[in-house]
Amino acid sequence: MVGLRGSAATVAYGSTKWAVRGMTKVAANEFAEHRIRVNSVHPGYVSTDMLKANSEASNDAGTLATPLKRQGTPQEIAALVAFLASEESAFITGAEIAIDGGWTL
Fold first, then answer.
1. Among residues 13, 36, 69, 73, which one is catalytic?
2. Which PANTHER family match (predicted)?
3. CATH fourth-level superfamily of 2-99
4. Is the separation of the CB atoms in 39 and 93 below 8 Å?
5. Rounded distance, CA 102 to CA 58, Å?
6. Structural domain boundaries of the chain?
7. pLDDT on residue 9
8. End-to-end Cα spacing for the chain
9. Taking CA 78 as the corner, what is the angle to CA 73 and CA 83, rounded to the nearest 5 degrees?
10. pLDDT tens-digit series, residues 47-91
11. Chain-centre distance of CA 46, in angstroms?
12. pTM for the structure as a whole
């Protein structure tokens, strides 16, 4: 979630996410001549084991900060990745796709 908007006290984590954005653009340019598409997926609060390390209050706050007022599911992320890997997305490259319930709005 930090990858598409800055958040206080997340310099190390945020830096790596911003790096993914840059690498997506550079790799998409470099590999386009080989017809290789490169896109990045930026999930928001997704109901996974990673969130279990957070306090319930922290997870509740993250969920409430999400305009859709819920956590995503791993299946929703997988469906987006499957679409990007399919020929249905053949004209998409260099995209940064937020799947975050509107958190980055």
1. 13
2. DEHYDROGENASES, SHORT CHAIN, ESTRADIOL 17-BETA-DEHYDROGENASE 8-RELATED
3. NAD(P)-binding Rossmann-like Domain (3.40.50.720)
4. yes
5. 18
6. 2-99
7. 80
8. 11
9. 135
10. 999 999 999 999 999 999 999 999 999 999 999 999 999 999 999
11. 10
12. 0.88
Can you give the pLDDT at residue 5? 74
CB 39 within 8 A of CB 86: no
13 belongs to the catalytic site: yes
36 vs 21: CA distance, rounded Å: 17
Label residues 75-90 b or e (16+ Cβ within 10 Å = b).
eebeebeeebeeeebe
CA angle in degrees (0–180, nearest 5) for 67-57-18: 55
User: 9-61, pLDDT tens digit by residue?
Assistant: 888 988 998 999 999 999 999 999 999 999 999 999 999 999 999 999 999 99
**CA 1/CA 99 separation, integer angstroms:** 9
Distance of alpha carbon 87 from alpha carbon 100, whole angstroms: 24
By the 8 A CB rule, do 76 and 48 touch? no
* Residue linked to tokens 């997704």: 46
What are the structure tokens assigned to 72, written together?
Answer: 């995503």
